[in-house]
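Hi, here's the filled form for the chain we discussed.

Project: internal
Contact: R.S.
Residues: 211
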Amino acid sequence: MDRKAAGAPRLTRADVEIVEKSTPFQGYFRIDRYRLRHKLFAGGWSEVFSREVFERGHAVAVLPYDPVRDEVVLIEQFRAGAYAAGRGPWLVELVAGIIGPGEEPEAVARRETKEEAGLEVRALEPVADYLASPGGMSHWVKVYIGQVNTAGVGGIHGLADEHEDIRVEALPLLDGFDLIAKGRICDAATIIPLQWLLLNRDDVRRRWGAA
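And the returned structure, exactly as it came back:
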């Protein structure tokens, strides 16, 4: 490894120059094209090159959890991206929604949990922020565990004007890991909080008055 490159200062957004930005596609989602250059680890600048970035907004994801029953709530719905990828298009996942202009993530988390699962969130525990696919998307996801009461949970939910047809189910936390092993859960936004909750379950239950 080049010692000079290894010891160089960390590069930041200030080390990127946007030469040109355009929007070749605008539909339900958007694609922006950038012509840019950036500083190099070894010094100097890269050549100018082009990258397309898929823009779909940023999101909140919530894993509803009942600490008394030790149950999580998962939803199942049609996903066009999974269909296009050659996978089964009905995915088992967690509650999620796009953060609109001026919205706070926690407010979106509470709203989407009500709309998609029919549940009121009592408390929110931040788990992680992550970029879904930074090589070609700006999309980042803020993930929470949401304290809920799963008594009577179930049924079909979602907003008809958003073409949502969402089946809701409560199940023991450990059953969620069986669904990962069987390939029924295959998206990062669901896997991350399930794994986090398994590692932190005792602490969460204690703080939420269930242990």
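Let me know if anything looks off before we file it.
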